Amino acid sequence: MFVTFLGGCSADGKTPDKETSGKKVSAEVTDEETIQKETETEKETLPPEPETDEFGSTIPTTMPKQKLKRKPVSYAGIDPSKPMIALTFDDGPCANTPRLLDILNKHGVKATFFVVGKYVEDNASTMKRMAKEGHEIASHTWSHANLSTSSRETIEKELKSTNAIVKKITGQTIHLARPPYGSSNELAQQVAAELGLSYILWSVDTRDWESRNATAVYNMTMNYVGNGSIILCHDLHSTTVDAMESVIPALINSGYQFVTVSQLLTYNRGELEAGEIYSNR
Ligand SMILES: [Zn+2]
Fold it and tell me: How far is the CA of 102 from the centre of ligand 1 (A)?
C-alpha cells in the first residue's frame, strides 16, 4: 500500500557540526556564527506552543470531528455470530463491472464500490444496477487524483463532483471515500470533514493490479483474510473478476459473511466521524 506522509521531513542531508559548536566556542567568530545559526534553526523547527484557555486547558486548533450525518446503517441479515468482511472494488465502473455484479448476485454477496466519478455517467446502467442490488457506492475521486498533492480547490472539486454524479445517476448519497493510492493529508481530511465524508483504506491488499493473476489474488485473499478485513480489489482488471469466481465461495466456506464497509465499520463502534481515516488494520 502507499501512504504518503508530507511535511515534517528533515532529511536534507545537513548534519550540524557538533565539534565546531561544542568545543571551540570562543576561538573563532565563524564558530559563534555557526552556533547562532543553529540556535535559529532550532527555534524554527520547534513546534508552536499550544494555546491554552484561562484554566490552562489546551485549546484545540482543529474543529472537533462530527459524526457522519446519514440515515442509520441497516444491519438487516447480519449474523452477529459470524465473522464479517467487506470486499471493496476500486477504479470502476467499467466493462468488467456487470460480470462482477453477476458473481456477487449469484452468491448473495454485498460489496462496496469506490467509483471514479468521471466513469459514472458512461456506465449509468451499471451504476443503477449496483445501487438496486444493495451494494454500497463510495467515492474514489473524480479523476483518480492524488489528494495529498492537490490544492484545496482541487480536492473539493474531485470529491464534490463525484458525490454529485453518483447522486444524479443512482439517487444515493456518498458518505465514504477512498483516496487514490491511499494517500491523504491534513488538508484532504479537513475537506472531507467539511463535506461529511470519511476516508476508508484497507486491511488486506490483494495487489491484483500488480499480479493480474486470478490465482495470486485468491492466495493473497485467503492468506491474509480475518474477521473485520477490508479487502482491496480493482474491478478494472478482468483477472480480479475471474478471481472472485473462486474467492467468494472459498470465503463463504470458511464461514465469513460479506457486509458493506459502512456495516462493517459501524456495527460495533457506531457512526463514523467525518474527516477520519479508517482501515481496520
Ligand atoms: Zn485507485
Answer: 22
Q: Is 60 inside a domain boundary?
A: no
User: Do residue 190 and residue 243 come from a single domain?
Assistant: yes
- Does any domain span residue 228? yes
Q: What pLDDT band is residue 54 in, cutting at 50, 70 and 90?
A: low
Same domain, 119 and 160: yes
Concerning whether 234 is annotated as a catalytic residue, the answer is yes
Give the domain range for residue 41.
Answer: 20-53
Q: How many residues does the chain have?
A: 281
Predicted confidence (pLDDT) per residue in 9-51, tens digit: 333 333 333 333 333 333 344 444 444 444 444 444 454 555 6
Half-sphere exposure of 15 (CA within 13 A, CB side): 3
Catalytic residue (choose from 90, 205, 208, 242): 90
Summarised one tens digit per residue, pLDDT across range 154-196 is: 999 999 999 999 999 999 999 999 999 999 999 999 999 999 9
Q: Which of 135, 140, 175, 234 is catalytic?
A: 234
Separation of CA 280 and ligand 1 centre (Å): 19
Rounded distance from Cα 140 to ligand 1 centre (Å)? 7
Co-location of 151 and 268 in the same domain: yes
Q: Helical H runs in the chain? A: 18-23, 29-45, 97-106, 124-132, 152-170, 186-195, 208-211, 214-224, 238-253, 261-266
Å from CA of 171 to ligand 1 middle: 23
Give the whole-angstrom CA distance, residue 110 versus residue 232. Answer: 14
Count of structural domains, the chain:
2
Same domain, 175 and 49: no
